[in-house]
Hints:
The protein has helices at 12-23, 70-75, 93-100, 104-117, 120-148, 170-186, and strands spanning 48-51, 54-59, 62-66, 153-155, 161-163.
Amino acid sequence: MSDNILKKNFQKKDVERLRNLIKGKGSQRTGQGIGYTKKQQFHKEGDIWKEDGRTWTIKDGIKQNITKLDKFKKAAVPLFCPTCNTIMNKQLDPHYFKTYGGCLDCIKKKETKLKLDGTWKKFRDDVHNEEIDQTIEEFSQFFEMKMSESNDGYVTEAGEIEKWKGGLNKEKAKKALEDGIEYLKSLKK
């Protein structure tokens, strides 16, 4: 019978823990917690900060990591339509989502409602005019970029540097830009 002697030494906190469990007080603490915690920083919606080499923000109350792929995340098509919460599994749904922000069925319903209300022609003309305004803006930005480039030389595929003489006629290019913008504005409805 002397073989039943427990050969393990229990610490005081172990004994207290067992007593608490037997008495039904399992949630009580038996020891003191010590440690170091850094000072917490509280951020608001839209704040951007760096922590541990990463950039963070808060969107919709959730702390999110800002990565290089954030623009791609916006371009990706969700599994469910944000308007009607149905699965976006039709062939044209990704194209309609990227253009209009909803699935094909939602856009068809919206357009049908506009046609019934009699506001379809105005909506179509507004979309057409917005596309023309976007084209004018992109064309102007492209022009400014090309005007700021150097025209000193050109490196061929063989690695030879060709020196070009002459240059740009900036007044003529500016006139062509203005004529192009006037033509695009004339296409507005």
